[in-house]
Amino acid sequence: MSDLQLSPHFSLREMLFSDTAARMGIENVPTDEQIRNATRLCQVLLEPMRIELGRPMTVLSGIRTARVNALVGGAPYSAHLDGRAADVLVAGMSPDTFARWIRQRGYPVDQVISEFGRWTHIAMAGAGKPRNQYLTATKVNGATRYEVLA
Q: Can you state the percent helix, strand and coil of the chain, rounding each to 5?
């Protein structure tokens, strides 16, 4: 099942990969709903972005089980839990630059967060209209602080 291609450039295997899960020996097994949502995320957002950019994108975190999400310090209602989010790196592009690039293109995102200058979180809406929210996350005195992306 993990060899399933969700789009031409993205597989279920990479959407399931987690350094934390691998290190802890946890199997990150997806539900059918997570696979459906991740397929939609790849086909509607990630694949078109990758094609337009013409650059490789690396998924650092996609689908998460509740246990994996808790271990990585994810939000209790994270879109990763539904398979609607991915944290990605783009070759030769900073997370801030990539987040601004997404905003300029008008992709139908629910949320884009340039997180800690290390990766870009991309989420699509579940039911309802996307929020088109663009944020920057930083650590201040150990707490995560979110600001509107400049």
A: 35, 25, 35
Do you know the residue count of the chain? Answer: 150
pLDDT tens, residue by residue, 11-41: 999 999 988 888 999 888 999 999 999 999 9
E strand segments, the chain: 5-7, 10-11, 57-61, 85-90, 111-115, 119-123, 133-140, 143-148
Residue 2 has pLDDT above 80, yes or no: no
CATH number at residue 19: 3.30.1380.10
Task: Give the Å distances, CA to CA, from 8 to 5, 43, 113, 119, 145.
Answer: 7, 9, 25, 22, 35
**What's the pTM value of the predicted model, to 2 decimals?**
0.93
Give yes or no for residue 97 having a pLDDT over 70: yes
Total of domains in the chain: 1
Closest of 76, 78, 80, 77 to residue 28, by C-alpha: 80
Taking the alpha carbons at both ends of the chain, their separation in whole angstroms is 41
